[in-house]
Amino acid sequence: xxxxxxxxxxxxxxxxxxxxxxxxxxxxxxxxxxxxxxxxxxxxxxxxxxxxxxxxxxxxxxxxxxxxxxxxxxxxxxxxxxxxxxxxxxxxxxxxxxxxxxxxxxxxxxxxxxxxxxxxxxxxxxxxxxxxxxxxxxxxxxxxxxxxxxxxxxxxxxxxxxxxxxxxxxxxxxxxxxxxxxxxxxxxxxxxxxxxxxxxxxxxxxxxxxxxxxxxxxxxxxxxxxxxxxxxxxxxxxxxxxxxxxxxxxxxxxxxxxxxxxxxxxxxxxxxxxxxxxxxxxxxxxxxxxxxxxxxxxxx
Length: 300
Description:
Elements: E1 2-9, E2 12-23, E3 28-39, H1 56-65, H2 69-85, H3 89-125, H4 131-154, E4 164-168, H5 177-188, E5 192-195, H6 202-212, E6 216-219, H7 227-239, E7 247-249, E8 269-271, H8 277-290, E9 295-296
Helix pairs in contact: 2-3, 2-4, 3-4, 4-5, 6-7
């Protein structure tokens, strides 16, 4: 077993990688210094011998003491990309547990998973990642978030005063990872969430919403080609008996849309361009203060 020992000298903290060894002669455990690591707040994963880099106690120490968190995150992102291509769900969950223990779910999504998945998309677009491997990465990411959602569901933190939220995508939109991420984040904040993504016909969304009676309908659009289907869904919601007065549109699919040139049906829509996961919750709180029922289209 290894761990990092913190020793203070003249007001400064210095780190030592230590291993417990059994001393047969004395019949007790003795500590052996494996490596001197330098100032505690400067220790990064690369300073650790490779056979100990994934040890939970080592990662824990670095997370708590290091001021150079970005280097640690870079190492984790590189590791996650490799694990995604191998569909190694168990190791991906291990990274999630190690990181979120100190930095939380939101930061895990924004600082690790999202950049890695964008990288996967860029590698595929440039021809450096074949279609099969891209699908493996996507499926592995879905499996990881599904496990996270199941854990959150087993430990509910529901707030009775929080709005009920329905998450979906327009018909033809098959990208659902963003919806799953939003679902787990909102559930972790106490919201009651129903996620019916991906690719739901407008009539089915209306039928489900009529029974669920959500305070917000959140629709994610990843591909700009699906603006027509999103437009149809928005119009159906506005024409229905659902209590909807505003619609907020988000997702990477809206980045190329010129919002001032949209049809009349979209003029009541506010597009949330460039909104990160951390901006979703403030937007929801702002909207729910303005009226009893709203519909919102979110960022993937």
